[in-house]
Design a protein that fits this description.
34% helix; two-stranded antiparallel ribbon; 9% strand; 14 helices; alpha+beta; 9 strands; 3-stranded antiparallel sheet
Amino acid sequence: MERARNVHEAMDIANRSGIPPQNVILADRDGHIAWTVMGRIPQRAGYDPRLPSSWAEPGRGWFGWLPANDYPRILDPSTGALWSANTRALDGPALDAIGDGGFALGARATQIRDELLSLENATEAAMLAIQLDDRALFLSRWRRLMLDVLASGAATDEPRRARARQVVESGGHNAAVDDAGYRLVRNFRREVARRAWAMILAGCARPDGGKLPSGMRQWEGALWRIIEERPTHLLDSSYADWQEFLLAAADAAVRDCGDEALERCTWGRANVLNMRHPLGRAAPLLAAWLDMPASPMPGDLNVPRVQAPAIGASQRFAVIPGREESGYFHMPGGQSGHPMSPFYDAGHRDWAEGEPTPFLPGPDRHRLTLKPVD
């Protein structure tokens, strides 16, 4: 790949490579940009690759690998920018060639796209600001809905509901560690989804009590349509109306905070980094030396600063060729594999706190000299 002279050669190399399929975004010195899939794609036949299917029928299954010239590609889009964020980049026959590998919902990608297209100068600082953006734009309509539900007559008579409304009114705009409103709104959306799917799937006798499937990521549009239209035939008979349903979901969101004061039920207390070394899990007495600190983290799965207790950005960096001294690089966990080394967690705090670590190395601190044995 490092010998490729332009994005066309780079895409050819990417499509022929043997890695598990990944998004790859490329740029060359002439200003061309491109997206494609890097890695092997099975050549499927006889079924829709986006849906579950049995291979029992003749002519259905995988038949070798997709030829490189049939790979989906995007070259020099009219927007002048490309982004990924694990979202779906294609539709139609190109999507059929890839199948559904569990695309992200798209909220994070949309926010990244809008910020990229608003840039006049894509500086290193501007790129880091996008990567650290924790504004909860995706949940803004859920925040408004929760405020409306908690402002209803049935809600205002209960003190904890009234306090919840005050907390959401004063926050909920960012997935920030000190934002209790964000946590309540996030809980509210989860409870609405869980209860709605439990009602819809009640006749299926699901053993998990309507728990949301872990791989089900594209339900937001359908759920919001249900909330907007509020069809009576989908409502469980235990609720008098949809307002009572939504109020029950809001109460459940508040109960998630237990008995503590709601303003102390912040997002940072739920979104605590749990970065464990495999040996630390196997031998808990070693965890103090091997694991990274358990620290409250901003960000979430549907904002550009992607973060969960066990999920986060594997790296952040930006560098402009010829201006390497202005670049930055983030990697969680540090680069040393020796837990007794003073550099074991070097750079981890910068990653966690969003401070730009210089891309170039600093002055030598230690030097290791290898001498051949006579």
